[in-house]
Amino acid sequence: MKNKPALSFWQIWNMSFGFLGIQFGWGLQMSDKYALLASMACIGIAWASILSMPYAMLTRALPKDKVGVMMGMFNLFIVIPQETK
Description:
The chain has helices at residues 9-28, 33-61, 67-84. The protein has 85 residues and is an all-alpha fold. It has one domain.
């Protein structure tokens, strides 16, 4: 069995952007529309890093010749319930 993926420097860096965005928004209490934009951008960077983690875990576990098909099926299992709701 392969080792589970460890957090890389860039994932931790992106999570810190999320925390920065929350703190930035809270500290300024959204008095400025540009502060809100900067806060949401930081949170968005962290959110993108969080959402990419299942795909990174899956690609390490799949055989190299079946990655495209299996990733497409995995994506369908995520998208179809969202679309039917």
